[in-house]
Amino acid sequence: MSRANTLPFEVMQRPLSPTQQKVYDRLRRHVARTGATPDLAEFARDLDVHYVSLKQHLEALATKGWIVFESRGRGRSPHLELPAAATGVPILGSIPAGPLSEAVADAEAYLPIPGMQDRGFALRVRGDSMADLIQDGDVVLLEKRPTERSGEICAVRVGEEDVTLKYLDRLDGHEWALRPHNPDYETMVYPASAIEVEGVYRGLLRGPVADALAIDG
Fold this sequence. Notes:
The longest helix is centred in the N-terminal third of the chain and has 17 residues, at about 20-35. This protein has helices spanning about 20-35, 40-45, 50-65, 85, 100-105, 205-215; strands at about 70, 80, 90, 110, 120-125, 140-145, 150-160, 165-170, 175-180, 190, 195-205. The chain folds into two domains: about 20-85, Winged helix-like DNA-binding domain superfamily/Winged helix DNA-binding domain (Arc Repressor Mutant, subunit A, Orthogonal Bundle); about 90-215, Umud Fragment, subunit A, CATH 2.10.109. The strands form two sheets. Strands 4-3-5-6-11-7-8-9-10 form a nine-stranded mixed β-sheet. Helix 1 crosses helix 3 and helix 2 (about 40-45) crosses helix 3 (about 50-65). Strand 7 and strand 8 form a beta hairpin. By secondary structure, it is α+β, with helices and mostly antiparallel strands. It starts with 17 loop residues before the first helix and ends with a helix.
């Protein structure tokens, strides 16, 4: 079952001052890298600001809708939380024709995978062209980068079509083959100019496992 994020949906994010932006960016990078929010005293030292000043910046970020920051009473550390969309890897139900950024904006949920937020996305697989290696309903993790060698599994867009997941084989300098894992499907050959690599395969989660880890945006 997905865990709901506590940031209210009705809160609209308002612009940040340069200092607030710096605090937010450092906070987001820390959570993306470690999977946890920092100790505030250590975070203040890293930013070279007074602890009270840091709390004021965090309160401003919360007021402007960028984070959750709540006092829990004297002697207890405040509750600090970032929305899943800030640090998680977005799970896309599909990638329709058009910019990848538009599909990410409509992510169905997010996976808390440290270190991949800025360069990764996840795709829920529909169909069996990559079976039995990748099954219908699996969630594959992909890195947003060009393919580095022939034979990598990639999320590929052909012309204005939706994205498909296939082995990408270089035939020569002018053509690529999109090869399925399932022998019941045919390999398709396209000119290199028609191929756009949206992401390169990094791993997968079976459907129920991904659902258990997913966090609503």
